[in-house]
C-alpha cells in the first residue's frame, strides 16, 4: 500500500516536473482586450495555466487519500514548496499518514540541484535504518532509464509551476459550477474530467513510455477535477480524484498560497543521507526506486 501511495505521489510530482508547455498555449488564444467577454470553461483553464506559468514560486497545503484498496485505506496531510528561480527546486512533506486506521511516520521528498532526496520508512529500512534520507542522483537515474534529465529540468523552468493546472486543459467536458469563497478569497469553481493518456500524449516522446509504466503501477486511467480560480486567474484550490480501478481511488486536494514569495528548500545534512546508487551496489542490485 505504501509502495502504491509513493508511486502515486511520484507520478503526480513527475508530471508536474515534466509536462511540456504546449498545454499552456491554450491560454494565449484568449483575447485580453475583450475584458467583458464571457469566457468558456476551457478558455478559463487555459488562461489559468498561462497565468500560473508566470509565477516562479508558491506554497501549498495538501491532503491525499486512497480508498477501496485490499490492503486498507490510506490518508496523508502535508505541505509543498516549489520554485523555478534561481534554480528549480521543490519539497513535499507528508508529515501525517494513516494506513488502515493506524498512524505511522510520514514521507518527505526534496529536489535540490540535480539530486532527489527521499525520506520514508521503507527507504530507511532499506538503508539499514541508521540514516533517514536516501539521495538519488538524477544523472545516474537518467543514465539507467534513458531519460534526458537536462531536458526535463529545462522544460520545468519554462513551465507553469502549478503544472496540474495545465493538465486540466486536456478536459473535453469542463464547466463552470459557480462562485465560491476559499480562505476568504472569492473564486469561480470549475469541474470536469480528463484522461491521463491525453495529458501524457503532450509529453516529449522519450518520456511518454516512462509515464505509461507509472500509470500501470498506479492503475490511474482518468481523473475527475475541481478547480477554484481567483480574480487574478490563479488557482486557489484544486481537487483531483482518480476514477475507480482495481487498486481503489486516489483523491488529492491542494490549496495554493504565497504565489511569488521566497521559499527555503535545502539539502538534508550529509550525516543523515545514504546514496541510493552506492546502496544498490552494496546490495548487488542495479534496480530502480522502490515502488516505482
Structure description:
This protein has 292 residues and is of the alpha+beta class. It has a single domain, classed as outer membrane lipoprotein receptor (LolB), chain A (Clam), CATH 2.50.20. Helices cover 29% and strands 34% of the residues. The protein is built from 9 helices and 13 strands. It has helices spanning 2-18, 41-52, 121-126, 138-145, 149-158, 163-167, 196-200, 205-218, 276-283, and strands at residues 57-67, 74-83, 89-99, 102-104, 107-112, 115-119, 133-137, 175-182, 185-195, 222-230, 235-242, 249-257, 273-275. Strands 1, 2, 3, 4, 5, 6, 7, 8, 9, 10, 11, 12 and 13 form a 13-stranded mixed β-sheet that branches. α1 runs antiparallel to α8. The protein is globular, with a radius of gyration of 19 Å. Residues 1-8, 10-37, 157-161 and 286-292 have low confidence and may be disordered.
Class from helix and strand fractions: alpha+beta
**Amount of helix:** 25-40%
Quote the CATH topology. outer membrane lipoprotein receptor (LolB), chain A
Order of helices and strands: HHEEEEEEHEHHHEEHHEEEEH
**Shape estimate:** globular
**Total count of helical runs of at least 4 residues:** 9
Total separate domains = 1
CATH class: Mainly Beta
Unreliable spans: 1-8, 10-37, 157-161, 286-292
Rounded radius of gyration (Å): 19 Å
What's the count of strands? 13
Write the CATH architecture name: Clam
* Biggest sheet layout: 13 strands, mixed
**End-to-end Cα distance:** 13 Å
% residues in beta strands: 25-35%
Amino acid at each position: 500500500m505504501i509502495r502504491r501511495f509513493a508511486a502515486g505521489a511520484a507520478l503526480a510530482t513527475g508530471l508536474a516536473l515534466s509536462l511540456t508547455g504546449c498545454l499552456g498555449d491554450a491560454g494565449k488564444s484568449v483575447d485580453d482586450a475583450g475584458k467583458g467577454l464571457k469566457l468558456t470553461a476551457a478558455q478559463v483553464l487555459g488562461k489559468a495555466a498561462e497565468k500560473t506559468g508566470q509565477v516562479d514560486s508558491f506554497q501549498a497545503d495538501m491532503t491525499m487519500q486512497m480508498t477501496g484498496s485490499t490492503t486498507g485505506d490510506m490518508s496523508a496531510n502535508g505541505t509543498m514548496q516549489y520554485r523555478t528561480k534561481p534554480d528549480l527546486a521543490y519539497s513535499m512533506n507528508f508529515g501525517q499518514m494513516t494506513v488502515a486506521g493506524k498512524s505511522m511516520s510520514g514521507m518527505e521528498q526534496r529536489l535540490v540541484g540535480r539530486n532527489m532526496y527521499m525520506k520514508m520508512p521503507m527507504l530507511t529500512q532499506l538503508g539499514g535504518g541508521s540514516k533517514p534520507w536516501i539521495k538519488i542522483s538524477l544523472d545516474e537515474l537518467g543514465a539507467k532509464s534513458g531519460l534526458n534529465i537536462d531536458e526535463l529540468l529545462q522544460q520545468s523552468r519554462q513551465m507553469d509551476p502549478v503544472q496540474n493546472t495545465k493538465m486540466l486543459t486536456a478536459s473535453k467536458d469542463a464547466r463552470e459550477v459557480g462562485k465560491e469563497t476559499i480562505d476568504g478569497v472569492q473564486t469561480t469553481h470549475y469541474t470536469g474530467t480528463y484522461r491521463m493518456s491525453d495529458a501524457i500524449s503532450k509529453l516529449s516522446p522519450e518520456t511518454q513510455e516512462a509515464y505509461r509504466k507509472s500509470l500501470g503501477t498506479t492503475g490511474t486511467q482518468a481523473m475527475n477535477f475541481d478547480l477554484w480560480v481567483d480574480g487574478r486567474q490563479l488557482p486557489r484550490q484544486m481537487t483531483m480524484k482518480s476514477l475507480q480501478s482495481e487498486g481503489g481511488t486516489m483523491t488529492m486536494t491542494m490549496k495554493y498560497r504565497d504565489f511569488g514569495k521566497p521559499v527555503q528548500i535545502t539539502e538534508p545534512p550529509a550525516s543523515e543521507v545514504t546514496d541510493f546508487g552506492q546502496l544498490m551496489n552494496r546490495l548487488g542490485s542495479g534496480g530502480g526506486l522502490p515502488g516505482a
